[in-house]
Amino acid sequence: MSRADSRAVLMQELEEAMRRSSAQGVMYGQAVANMAGISNSDMECMDILYLEGRVTAGRLAEVTGLTTGAITGVVDRLEKAGYVRRERDESDRRKVFISVVEEKAAEIGKFYVPMQEAMSRLWSTYTDDELRLLLRFANDGYKGVLEATEALKVVIDTPPEQRASLKMPPKRRR
Known about the structure:
It holds the Pfam family MarR. This is HTH marR-type domain-containing protein. Residues 7-143 form the HTH marR-type domain. This protein is mainly alpha-helical. It has one domain: Winged helix-like DNA-binding domain superfamily/Winged helix DNA-binding domain (Arc Repressor Mutant, subunit A, Orthogonal Bundle). It has 7 helices and 3 strands, in the order ααβααββααα. It has helices spanning 3-36, 40-52, 57-64, 68-80, 102-109, 113-123, 128-157, and strands at 55-56, 84-88, 96-100. Strand 2 and strand 3 form a beta hairpin.
């Protein structure tokens, strides 16, 4: 097998491993969301809020790829369930930030402890250099997903009859 063929096989195996891991993470998140009494997509938005800190609805829409209208629905549901709150900006009362209610986040967080412990055990087997590589991979992967989300938004925002004129990436085997 040539070096190029070997690399292609390795990249395919990596893609499949990442898809497996991603799918299992989604399923785990769905189980936690069910226990919390919210939808999985609302749970993911809450996690993004937790990671981003206090943000505007516009910023949340930007990082999720959802419309601002959809984000309003997400925030309404999460606020009603007590997981987030809206806070007016002190200097510009027109600006509203969304923040996670820490006590409620902690209730959900306890369901993630088994996953965190499993990952911690795994990561402890890697050297510092390997961890730095994994961190770079995860951060670069995140940027790639953001880029793909933006590209998908362009397709979604384009009327179906005009989508054929968009430059689409080549189809990949699934």
